Amino acid sequence: MLSKYSRAAGVFLLLLGLVLWGQQRSGAYTDEFGGHPDEAAHFVSALMIRDYIAQLGDGSGIAHPKRYAEAYYESYPKVAIGNWPPGFHAFQALWMLMLEPGQGSIFLLMALLTAGLGTATFCAVRPHVGRGWALAACMLLVVLPIVQKYSSLVMTEVLVGLLVFCAVLCYARFVESVHWKWGLGFGVLASGAILVKGSAFSLGLVPPLAVLCLRRWDLLKTWAFWLPAAVVGLLCAPWYVYTLDVATDGWAGDSPSLKFFAEAFFYNLKRLLETGGPVLLLLVFLGLARTCLSRKADEDAGPESSAFFPLLGILFLVVPLFHCIVPAGMEHRHLVPMLPAFVIFAVMGARDLCEKLETGGARFSGRRLRWAICGLSMAGMFLVG
User: Fold this and answer.
1) CA-CA to 150 of 20 to 30 Å: which in 60, 179, 185, 381?
2) β-pair partners for 81
3) Which DSSP helix (H) or strand (E) runs through 112?
4) Residue 81, helix vs strand vs coil
5) What is the per-residue pLDDT across 163-197, written as a single tens digit (0 to 9) for each?
6) How far apart are CA 137 and CA 131, in angstroms?
7) Are 232 and 194 spatial neighbours (Cβ–Cβ below 8 Å)?
8) Among residues 158, 113, 121, 143, which one has the least CA distance to residue 333?
9) What pTM value is reported for the model?
């Protein structure tokens, strides 16, 4: 058991080093918060919460929160509380209470979150593909150009991706065990993700699609199936009811439409190609087909792996589908929460392709074949990205 945790810690440190190196190369620690129009607002909003908490203990009295925010906005007109849920800003504020607020501390937090997402990917897929392929998956995740970009910006995407991925892993365990604690875990993690960014409402599509795709109609008869909805409603509904008008003010459309769906569908398809390049995308679809076609064999082998890959497939589907339905806008960053599934299916496709070529008497085999496929995939990824 100790070796398992020490191995995960070693992977975390390796990924952290890669992310910190990428941040240094991008100029994250020296540039201004201008890499995205929302970046400065995220930082200043978090800084305001941090300063408000800090002044509670300085003996000067407790200021009214709204008046304090209005006064803060007069000096720093980037406060955007209400435009986004409070989760990301509160998380940053707590971090800056422990460390000196500034670029160094906040980008260290972003690096830790990105390394955490990679480590979660490694730990989740390792029992299914082995250590070597799991390490390839998590390293691929942190070197994807889109992940490098948003690990070097103060944005919500990495934290949302981590919470969404962990929530889906919890739901996979719930489907396998039908135990209320995994349903509760899914509800709590989903609530955390939704309170960071509204795009995490895409998790609401996971339970019905899991029932439909896995034909688990028995889940509908258990109270634990409905528990996550109650948890999300209790924790998230008050905030979203109160701020609905502000949150939807910047949407690209007033309501879902066929026109927006068609435009967003082709936009996300193009961005999916840009995420990893043509070779990597082909490997993703190969891995997706391979795991879906072999699901029956996996179920016959035992329940341990029966829900993992189907739930990853659902994650791969629901994130772009949600952003095709909800007219909040079209941006590449909206696909970040499905990237753990993206790299896992890519690795599954690469492993399956290597096995087929080796048994088919390919000229290259073993390690040379894996390096050749890896080289082609990386070249395609960086040329397109």
Assistant:
1) 185
2) 84
3) helix 103-129
4) strand
5) 999 999 999 999 999 999 999 999 999 999 999 99
6) 10
7) yes
8) 158
9) 0.91
